[in-house]
Amino acid sequence: MTESTPVDWELARALAFAAGQAAAGGAEVIPLGEADGRTLAEPLRALTDLPAFPTSSIDGWAVRGPAPWRPVGRVLAGGTPPPLTADGDCVEIATGAMVPEGATALVRIEDSATGGDGRVTGEPRAVPDWRLPGEEAHRGEELLPAGTAVDPAVIGVAATCGYETLQVRPAPRAALLVFGDELLTAGPPGNGRVRDSLGPQVPSWLRRYGATMGSVTGPVKDTLDAHLDAIRSALDTADLVCTTGGTMHGPVDHLHPALAELGAEYIVNTVAVRPGFPMLLARVPGPAGRPRFLAGLPGNPQSAIIALVTLVAPLLAGLRGRDLPPLPQVTAGTGIAGRGDFTHLALAALDSTGRTATPVGHVGSAMLRGLANSHGFAVVRPGTQAAAGDTIGFLPLPLTPGERP
Hints:
Blueprint: E1 7-8, H1 9-23, E2 28-31, E3 44-45, E4 55-56, E5 60-63, E6 70-75, E7 89-93, E8 105-108, E9 112-114, E10 120-122, E11 130-131, E12 142-144, H2 152-161, E13 165-168, E14 173-179, E15 183-184, E16 194-195, H3 198-208, E17 212-220, H4 224-235, E18 240-244, H5 255-261, E19 265-269, E20 271-274, E21 280-284, E22 292-297, H6 301-319, E23 329-332, E24 343-350, E25 356-359, H7 369-372, E26 376-380, E27 391-396
Parallel strand pairs: 1-20, 6-7, 14-17, 14-18, 15-16, 18-22, 20-24, 23-25
Antiparallel strand pairs: 2-13, 3-12, 4-11, 5-7, 5-8, 9-10, 19-21, 21-22, 23-27, 24-25, 24-26, 26-27
Helix pairs in contact: 1-6, 3-6, 4-5
């Protein structure tokens, strides 16, 4: 079997995203506290007016009519006060409390005084110190559209509205198969064998891209039967199986024959990108007509991560009901070489402003030191090179803010 013509890098990302969109699941209802990181499957709408009742923004007095006012009670947050029925009456009121019906103004405690007769005087401020019903949202109003990424702020909005559950897209289930008899899973490398660095790290990248991580299996023996057994077992429970190594067509590379045996259809088979060659994404027939996916990551560690950000991240975005965001634009801090007809993804660190990207060192296909000192990849399109000061695309890694470099 010969290699296919490499697919343009941007087209490969688009094809992976479209495949994920087409296979996205429906929706599931989960408790509000478990929704962080999910995607809204339906618009979030206000269940009531927000606020639902006139609400005091201050500690002070709710008054009716002109001063002086006679205190007739107190209202705290959480209570339902009786109406103020007579001019000259007032109630002490706390921040967040419901403003009594009949109140004509609120007076801050610091703007008031209480006389010897117990009556209150003071001056309301020009801007009313209460929030009116519907000031933030009206009942039924769409607050956030379907497809919104759920984060703590979204959870807070939903809780404010009174939601206890949210309808969200299912989280894709992922599994990892590590191919290569030469790999060690413990101890330092030596005597012709290298330590597996992808088995420990790829699950974390997959989780950061929104997958629920299942099994990690390997090293899988370098035989076709072992590959088929491992892939079939992983596909029993996973929507996406990532494999490491075996994407070439050498004597111990059994991934392509295994995919043929499984009746898989290539979505992308090799991408015109350096590093990262070769990589693949295939669709595997699944139960009930819903496909499953296999992403073949190269064995070289940095190339494998480039395959992951190129094919797996867009696929997972589609499966999760997310948009594929456009690449941010940054300024090249130094010159970055091109790679001829291939897109060059150059590991780079951002400056403190996040607007200038400078390539890092130790960036060979088999190296990970550069990756550990980077925020993402500077994107140099085919047939071009970047000079210092040029505006270029930047593909960020899903890092926790402030972690590194």
